[in-house]
User: Fold this.
Amino acid sequence: MIAIVDYGVGNLFSLRSSLRALGAEAEVTRDAGRLRAAGRIILPGVGAFGDAREKLEGTGLVPVLREEAERKPLLGICLGMQLLFDRGFEYGEHPGLGLVPGQVVSLRESLEDKSLKVPHMGWNSLDVLRDDPLFRYFKSGEYVYYVHSFYARDCDASTLGTSRYGNVAVTGAVRCGNVWGAQFHPEKSGDAGLRLLRAFAEL
Assistant:
């Protein structure tokens, strides 16, 4: 079973529907026992880093997620990926979960061409930098769907794939041990995204 963490933010039910369409058993939950019983965990998220971190803390699940990440696959999606890092700088500085080394910074401040739109929204090709089981059914250069204004940086050792936006190599996918992250939305990325979710369900 794949447990999708419910902490008040995220595209929970479309994600669950995508997984079920693949034949994977998926459950939206904020119950610690269900997270411990799951074979895999997905941490979704949309919104602002600090607010999401506060809501996640309020569930009491932060220590559970850290413990479970030591022994089973965990995938963070969009803001859920950003929360995996050491810290985020959206409306101040906020601590992340510390599961992937690095920090989450403003995309707008990193862009040299200030005419480019932020949030970075829409389809962009993902260049795969390292072989990984997450890309078992995915080819480098396929298009995935992004919606974000911040991105992960200082995480080269964990970066699996990037997407170019202006002068910025946006960190699109990461891995550190049992922890994976996707800045894009696999559940909104058509067939390519479903194939990534399928690979995660098979990890």
